[in-house]
Amino acid sequence: MSYAQDHIVEHLAEGIGWRERPGWGAVLVCLHGIGSQARAFDALLPHLPADLRVIAWEAPGYGPSAPLANEWPLPADYAAALARLVRRLDLPRFHLLGHSLGTLIGAAFAAAHPQRLISLTLASCAQGMGLARGEPLPATAAARIADLERLGPVAFARERAARLVFRPQGNPAIVEAVRDGMAAVSLPGYAQAVRMLASGDLAGDCARLKVPTTVIVGAEDIVTPPAQSERAFAALPATARRRLLHVPGAGHALHQQAPAALAAALALHPETPADQSAQPACAPMEE
Question: What CATH number corresponds to the domain at position 49?
């Protein structure tokens, strides 16, 4: 077991749970996706600087975290919950990484609290559907909730997990890790997250961002295809420091299938571009 895994501590305070690798340097906060959990970022830890303090939250309604009060929350509601956790931990300015659904939360937080962030990384972007709260859910979104209710979380995960991994038949351990995380989802938290996804508008939030932002996507992602991440990148202000990175041979579960590439892309030292040696297809950081 690695140093990083040996030193993970689990916490719960004010209704929010999080996993933490203590560190004495800068802080990275990680936001997981809709069918995932904080543990999904464990594979990333060995590739990060040893002094980096890493905090991976359990989103409201996931793991030990209490669901939000509104049954149809918006990205801003999750961002407000993140702001409460940040205040509870008395964090200095920090780096923020969102994966999939976590990109909607990360962008909403960055738009509302730009002064709190050193950098933002949006991985495997979930674009959102832009619905008003309370509108009928599209069939694909409604099916997510219905399938979880009908199948239960274990069978639900068995049906869906392989789609998150490029060449799943050749990567059984990664598929198993994804499946384990998805099997931990529960209601009402998952249903709240589906409704938030339906109302999300990542491009709209990206247009308001003022922090250095990296957008990164697996080139083989079939859950949130590269076009969605490219749309988020295109929405970022042209005056912002921004990068778009494509990771060959990786699917949606980028932090589990290509953790070294994701770690290399994090702008942990934003005064200089991150190491792009693992990213042959990318747009450079723009000033």
Answer: 3.40.50.1820
CA-closest candidate to residue 227, choices 98, 101, 127, 102: 127
User: How many whole angstroms separate alpha carbon 186 and alpha carbon 6?
Assistant: 28
**Which of left, alpha, beta for 255 (phi over 0: left; psi -120 to 50: alpha)?**
alpha
pLDDT digits over 206-237, tens only? Answer: 999 999 999 999 999 999 999 999 999 999 99
By C-alpha distance, which of 125, 84, 118 is closest to 104?
125
The count of domains in the chain is: 1
CA dist 183 → 20, 113, 126, 151, 238 (Å): 22, 33, 20, 11, 40
**Closest to 59 in 3D by CA, of 41, 43, 79, 88:** 79
The pLDDT of residue 81 is: 98
pLDDT of residue 269: 65
Encode pLDDT of 92-147 as tens digits. 999 999 999 999 999 999 999 999 999 999 999 999 999 999 999 999 999 999 99
Distance linking the first and last C-alpha atoms of the chain: 40
Say what the alpha-carbon torsion angle 8, 57, 129, 245 is, to the nearest 10 degrees.
-40
Chain position carrying tokens 């909403």: 108
Q: How far is Cα of residue 243 from the mean position of the Cα atoms in its chain? A: 17
From 193, 169, 194, 150, select the one nearest 251 (Cα to Cα). 169
Its domain, for residue 228, covers 3-286
| Residues in a beta bridge with 55 | 20, 29
**CA separation for the pair 66, 242 (Å, rounded):** 34
Contact present, 150 and 227 (Cβ < 8 Å)? no
